[in-house]
Amino acid sequence: MPVTKCRHIFFLTLLTFTLTTALPPIIKIGAIFTQEEKDSSTELAFKYAVYRINRDKTLLPKTTLVYDIQYVPKDDSFHASKKACQQVQDGVQAVFGPSDPLLGAHIHSICDALDIPHLESRLDLDSEYKEFSINLHPAQTLLNNAFYDVIDFLNWTRVAIIYEEDYGLIKLRELVRSPGQREVEIHIRQADPDSYRSVLKEVKTKEIHNLIVDTRPENMHHFLRGILQLQMNDYKYHYLFTSFDIETFDLEDFKYNFVNMTAFRMVDAEDVNVRQVLEDMQRFQPTGHSPLNKTSVIQAGPALMYDSVLVFAVGLQTLEQSHSLVPANVSCDAEMPWDGGLSLINYINSVELKGLSGPIEFKEGRRIQFKLDLLKLKQHSLVKVGEWSPATGVNISDRAAFFDSGSMNVTLVVITILEIPYVMMRYGKNYTGNSRFYGFCVDLLERVSKEVGFDYILDLVPDKKYGAQDPGTGEWNGMVLQLMKHKADLAVGSMTINYARESVIDFTKPFMNLGISILFKVPTSAPTRLFSFMNPLAVEIWLYVLAAYVLVSITMFIVARFSPYEWHNPHPCELENDLVENQFSLANSFWFTIGTLMQQGSDLNPKATSTRIVGGIWWFFTLIIISSYTANLAAFLTVERMITPIENAEDLAGQTDISYGTLDSGSTMTFFRDSMIETYKKMWRFMENKKPSVFVPTYEEGIRRVLEGNYAFLMESTMLDYIVQRDCNLTQIGGLLDSKGYGIATPMGSPWRDKISLAILELQEKGEIQMLYDKWWKNPGDTCTRNEKGKESKANALGVDNIGGVFVVLLCGLAIAVIVAIFEFCYNSKKITKLERRVASAPHQSLCAEMLEELCFALRCRGSRQRPALKRQCSKCLPGTTYVPATFDLPPPVNNGLRSQDEKCFREAAWQFP
Fold it and tell me: Which one, of 670, 659, 669, 660, lies nearest residue 713 by Cα?
């Protein structure tokens, strides 16, 4: 084959391939609008999109888009179908619109039958997959997720949904069914411009402050006027609009009343690329209707229409790289599908780009990638406060926007309850309004209001209760109920943060941490006994010591008499003396034992090994006993002993003599009622069944019952600390039973919670809350002086009450000694009287006279080693002897003949007076 011919065939093949892969020079597209949309911003956006694509030679350089626009009545589906069939017969390769749901469904059925791409920018509530449909409007399922994320962030619990069109309820039904962590009470009402006012009035009567509004944009001004007429335009109300066009509404009357208005937008007019497109779009239509609708932003409908045309163009550009596009030659009569329609719809479905409505990505014809800006009405304008996307959910960038402190002139209703020292009241004609109240929480509220920037009206809760839920009916009372009914904006006081309350109202960060403790009357001192010096040893120990004393004494007596080494010669000089003596008589054995027990010496000393062992063991025993007694005596006599019947909650639960209770309808009562700890469950059963009731209406009543005795009051530690420091008759028993905090309560979803929390944290960091605590708890002029006992550095001095028994024992011992001496004197005198009766001539003296004479002699100041002898004589003694000298003063006998007889008389006298 010649080279020239081969080269000709190659170029012919290349030209054929080029022709088969190129797009037609003209591609016709059709658009169907309702008659109301004629010359609207949506139609203008469609025309401008075609104009911009044709002008941009980089997108479709060899292809020009030509549009065919048809207008149909809104409710005439037959006429719309005829218009669509006419466009198909004219060779359109894609159909755009209409925005009406009913008409859109009919147009799609025609496109689906003929395999012609149908691009929509309307809300489609049909969740079924549509093969030849490309919809740029976000699916309602995803939008409901966005709305619910905002509701969850705002902590809404009661919501009113107001919708206008019939499909509005179907649109928001998933929002109603959305599961969440907290239950949301939803009230649904349908309204139109004629019934807006009555529906809003009903919502206001039910005290619902959070509303989701789904109305037609053209009727929004009627709805806003109804809000103004019913004065629902203050900070209490929060409106969440489903429309993406909130920036086009006239909100001038709502900016300065701090009403909360929130909505999403799809077009970020602050984006540079978006701004350039909008400016160019504005110049495209210098006269007549403007796509920007006389505002600086574009509505969502026109933006989505612009993006749909752009998506179609990008899909054509992608198709051009690998396929050819044969012009459509189909009709509704033949019902023959277009061969190139399936390829074209697949390439359009794979388009990913960023348009006026943000990032665009599809899956099965549904848009899965987009970004919504969350807008919030502030004092001057609508501002962006966050974003939402299907992948990341809601992301709030400006939390403070939901609470604009600015230059507010807002007066909040604050409820409280009288409780020392948190809130107290001044009674008098000179005190009115907020000046009636004073205390820790009043000072705290004053500082918080200055930090946040609001005024307040302080008043008391009607039923004088903090708030607890009735387990039977589930109804709340007290301050919690007032907040739930939105009859108050804040609740300030010693209000505990717990799970039950947090589930129905909101709390700020805690301004004080505490726990439950036991208030009890100061235990009385143990009564001082006269013989308290015996307390170091138990009674049984004293009995054991006495028994040991008797046992050792008898053992010593027996062992000493049994051992031969304890017997000795009384006259060592007389070696032939057959008499031996034993020093350990029964009396001496007892004397030896008691002497060593009392740590005193004795003239009796054991000589035998056996008796020395007995003595040594006894000495060791007395060493330990006396040392232990001495060591323990100091603690018993210098430290006052207290009688404390209970030491902790376990002791309280283990007895029934002492009653105990809590404040009625308070968090402490709820703690015991809901506790799963066995000790606290047992205590709750006791308190619940105790008659009369152990629950008290106020703290003052509980304190009074404690002071009356036999009652323990379970209360919060901060209040207990305040009371104990002012009444020395009260004390705290044990430690804390739990740990919790006090917070300022707000209604669920209140915009004031976060800002007040920040103010509390700032006051804590500055130390102002601690200064308030010291002011109201530790004021030196208001606290009692407590005598701290039981400390090592402050041992009590011993008094007569402590050791007076020792003196009693001494006096009793002296009295016993005197009685025994008298007994000995009487016994000896009686014995001598018997001897005198044998000698008739012996002088006789009465017993009383003798005792008186001896007593007078004993009481003489100047004692003498000699005394007059008793006027009694031995029958064998010589008469005439008046005095008997002492044994060591007697002169030696002179008369040897009378020696033995005189010596015998002398011995008798010496025996009488040793």
Answer: 660
Nearest one of 124, 155, 156 to 142, comparing CA atoms: 124
d(CA 756, CA 452): 7
Burial of 741 (0-12, 13-18, 19+ CB in 10 A): middle
Closest CA to 177 of 186, 190, 168: 186
Q: For the residues 314-331, what does the mean pLDDT come to?
A: 84
Residues 111, 83: Cα–Cα separation, whole Å: 12
Look at residues 783, 785, 784, 802 and name the one whose alpha carbon lies nearest to residue 525.
Answer: 802
Supply angle C-alpha 221, 222, 225, rounded to 5.
85
Element containing residue 273 per DSSP (H, E): helix 272-284
- pLDDT for res 791: 43
Q: For 820-833, how does the pLDDT look when each residue is reduced to its tens digit (9 = 90+)?
A: 767 766 777 777 77
The answer to whether residues 542 and 743 touch, using CB atoms and an 8 Å cutoff, is no
Please choose, from the candidates 851, 863, 870, the residue with its C-alpha nearest in 3D space to the C-alpha of residue 908.
870
Whether residue 599 contacts residue 562, with contact meaning beta carbons closer than 8 Å, is answered with: no
User: Where do runs of H (alpha helix) occur along 578-675?
Assistant: 586-597, 609-638, 649-653, 667-674
Distance, in Å, from the CA atom of 1 to the CA atom of 6, rounded to the nearest integer, reads: 7
pLDDT digits (tens, 9 = 90+) for 524-541: 665 666 667 777 778 888
Pull the structure tokens for residue 411.
Answer: 């007066």
Q: Which of 389, 140, 333 is nearest to 242 (CA)?
A: 140
The label of the residue with tokens 């005795």 reads: 709
Question: Cis link prior to 98 (omega < 30° from 0)?
Answer: yes
Is the bond leading into 692 cis (omega within 30 degrees of zero)? Answer: yes
> How far is the CA of 860 from the CAs of 120, 653, 853, 856, in angstroms?
139, 72, 11, 6
In sequence order, which residues have a C-beta less than 8 Å from that of residue 787 and are 6 or more positions away?
728
Residues 6+ apart with CB under 8 A from 866: 883, 885, 886, 889
Cβ–Cβ under 8 Å, residues 51 and 284: yes
Q: Tens of pLDDT along 731-742? A: 888 888 888 889
DSSP label of 496: B
Contact 335, 114 (CB under 8 A): yes
Token representation of residue 662: 């809590």
- Which is it for strands 26-34 and 64-72: parallel, antiparallel or unpaired? parallel
N residues, the chain: 914
Please give the angle made by the CA atoms of 162, 165 and 170, to the nearest 5 degrees. Answer: 80
Q: What is the pLDDT of residues 621-651, one digit of tens each?
A: 888 888 888 887 777 666 555 556 777 888 8
Map residue 519 onto helix, strand or coil: strand
Q: How far is CA 34 from CA 41, 306, 564, in A?
A: 13, 17, 143
CA distance linking residue 492 with residue 505, whole number of Å: 13
491 pLDDT tier (thresholds 50, 70, 90): very high
Compute the C-alpha angle 475/478/481, nearest 5°. 55
Between CA 212 and CA 678 the distance in angstroms is 47
Q: What is the pLDDT of residues 278-300, one digit of tens each?
A: 888 888 765 555 556 556 778 89
Residue in the structure block whose two tokens are 């529906």: 199
Those residues whose C-beta lies under 8 Å from the C-beta of residue 155, and which sit 6 or more positions away, are 182, 506, 748, 749, 750
In angstroms, rounded to a whole number, what is the distance separating the alpha carbons of residues 401 and 419? 35
Residue 733 · residue 520 · CB < 8 Å: yes
What global pTM score does this model have? 0.54
Name the residue type at position 779.
N
Using CB atoms within 10 Å of the CB of residue 259, give its burial: 0 to 12 exposed, 13 to 18 middle, 19+ buried: buried
CA distance 214 to 241: 6
d(CA 498, CA 504): 11
Angstrom distances, CA of residue 210 to CA of 161, 397, 719, 827 = 9, 22, 38, 112
Q: Name beta bridge partners: 383.
A: 376
DSSP 890: P
pLDDT exceeds cutoff 50 at 168: yes
